Amino acid sequence: MKFKYYQVDSFTNKIFEGNPACVVQLNEWLEDEILLKIAQENSVAETAFFIAEVNGFKLRWFTPDIEIDLCGHATLATAFVIKNYLNYSSDTIFFETMSGKLIVEVIEDFYFLDFPSRKAVSSSLPLEIEKSLNIQPKEIYKSRDYLLIYENQAEVEQIEINRNFFDKINLGFGGVVVSSKGDHVDFVSRYFTPQATILEDPVTGSSHCSLIPYWATFLMKDKMISSQLSKRGGYLKCQNLPERVRIGGQAVLYSSGNFFI
Length: 261
Prior knowledge:
Elements lengths: L1 E9 L8 E7 L6 H11 L3 E8 L2 E7 L4 E2 L3 H14 L6 E6 L2 E8 L2 E7 L4 E2 L4 H6 L6 E4 L3 E4 L3 H6 L4 H4 L9 E6 L5 E6 L7 E2 L6 H12 L3 E6 L5 E7 L3 E6 L1 E10 L1
Parallel strand pairs: 2-3, 4-6, 11-12, 13-15
Antiparallel strand pairs: 1-2, 1-18, 3-4, 4-5, 6-7, 7-8, 8-17, 9-10, 10-11, 12-13, 13-14, 15-16, 16-17
């Protein structure tokens, strides 16, 4: 069988920056084992698989390790492919996913994701995570992810993870977000996933489901700009809504082609 794929860098307008995702259109779902093997072969943070329906698209996301419940950059990449390479005329794209209905609105060259708000609550830090960190946070919160707040951007930049301790904890779909106020943007973050092939995610849309409501409350503003401080880096336009968050970014095509299974 022959399939078309697109590799897209999300939350950036420059090749080799942002977060890479592969996007694959299917006519019907393949076995989960095959989808995971495709994701492993692609060897990027996420591979998105979608199927066109009458009123939108069904969408699933696979890392090289597992299927996950929510992914921002691969959703953005999928919307980018649908809009630019599948002759899709509408500027509003509807997805049915494991996390319910998601909407992407296209405004010029920005893609705005309508995602669920996941407000984090005060928490304690598991010993495995505490031991894995070279700098301890000043505040600890938990939603799907652990959200660790630091004094300043320099501390976030200097975070190092000891995988000997970090990989002993299983957080399911979740990971660990480290964040602070930004020097040149409203807030900055980094994202780490234990037991994952890719330890540090370059730009994580889903973590902003918790980051946005936290910083909106702290900074007392509903519209913000954030930056993820990975080696590749990326920028996100953020808006806090009553029960949702709005995450905006750009994307650029790196490659496209065919694969055969």
